[in-house]
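Hey, I was hoping to borrow your eyes for a little while. There's a protein on my desk that I can't quite get my head around. The fold is given in discrete form, as structure tokens running alongside the sequence. I'd be grateful if you could look everything over and explain what you see. Here's the protein in full, and shout if anything looks odd to you:
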Amino acid sequence: MTTDDRSHVAPLAPDELEAKLDALGTELRRRRMSANLTLDYIAQRSGLTPNYIGTIELGKRDPSVSSLIKIAHAFNCEVSDLFGSEGTPVCPRCGSPFDPQGACIKRSEGCQGGWGEAPRQRLSPEATEIARLYLKLPQKQQAGLMGFLRSLAGDDDPRSISR
């Protein structure tokens, strides 16, 4: 955008700002809930208080750039990711985000997941939820579910995983 282009941009209306703060809060909460993380956990990783993060999630607070950087660090993502639902790199074992070194952020709680177990890709929120629920099932039910999903998708490729 050139300087001339900026002269044609109208100021952001208060209701537009409120809508963007609501969307930010919704995305933070979606990310936190899809990874089964508590406000306390994100607060500990970000150095912010659970109350502060909760008010951001509710769209009642206009966070500073430094707070957004800290929250993005807690989720192991970029600040820009907090404004969209690109997905978060997740642990295949528990569905939690990875730290910058590629280990599950819940490793202190016993999870041993890491990049070596999954491709380096960002999963959609729906895929993250499916993986989290799948991993809670007993192995026999996992096999049955995979067979069902393969039949629905018409996938009879012998290279499919978990065969």
User: Anything to note?
Assistant: Residues 116-121 have pLDDT under 50 and may be disordered. Helices lie at 3-6, 14-34, 39-46, 50-57, 65-75, 125-136, 139-153. The two ends are 52 Å apart (CA to CA).
